Amino acid sequence: MSAASWLAGVRHLVFDWNGTLIDDIDLAVASVNRCCARFGAEPVTRERYRREFGFPIAEFYGRLGFDFKRHPFADIVAVYLEHFDAHVARCPMHDGVAELLELAAARGIGASVLSASQSNVLLRTLDAKRLLGSFQHVVGLDHTHASGKLDEAWALQSRLALPPADTLFIGDTLHDCEVARQVGWRALLVETGHQDRARLDDGDAPVCASLAELLPALSAPAAAGEPT
């Protein structure tokens, strides 16, 4: 399936943030390994992180060998966020992000962010990257439970006031695919994020190598009847 097919009829793009727009994998691995050192788990490689990562996050930490009877999950998350939140604004954006947002806007396609990051950190980082004004809605979490973002997706859908099938959710995990399916959005996954290609291929959404694959389709002349 071509990128043009993925975007046909799309009136709004919803982007996951971590791993999809911002390249924060190495920081995430370093933050997890700080938790490993603090709480007595074996350190993880980048490859194992991407092979094991998933939602709910507590189950991910369980697969990594953390003992919640000895160390409550909330304590582990606090150590992770202490390091991650302090450094995430230094992470680079993935290739093609600025161009993709500019082309989408020129085609009359709206854009929003839906993230499992905490809202205050998400807004601060978007502002640091000078991207805050590129999005119609920015939706993060107001808690640190890291259980997922389905409730937030439903709330965003109600704010969009569009048929769900007119929205494409672009993410980097199977959870993003599941959220899109439940809300009724279309889904597209990129393999540049927190789960490796082998994991993503288990989903029911197309997978592209990078966001840059979408640029030619958005650069092409608008088809008749397409919003401009």
UniProtKB/TrEMBL annotation:
Its EC number is 3.1.3.18. InterPro entries: HAD-like_hydrolase_sf, HAD-like_sf, HAD_2, HAD_sf, PGP-like_dom2. Coiled coil: none annotated. It catalyses: 2-phosphoglycolate + H2O = glycolate + phosphate. Pathway: Organic acid metabolism; glycolate biosynthesis; glycolate from 2-phosphoglycolate: step 1/1. It comes from the Bacteria. Belongs to the HAD-like hydrolase superfamily. CbbY/CbbZ/Gph/YieH family. This is phosphoglycolate phosphatase. It comes from Chromobacterium vaccinii.
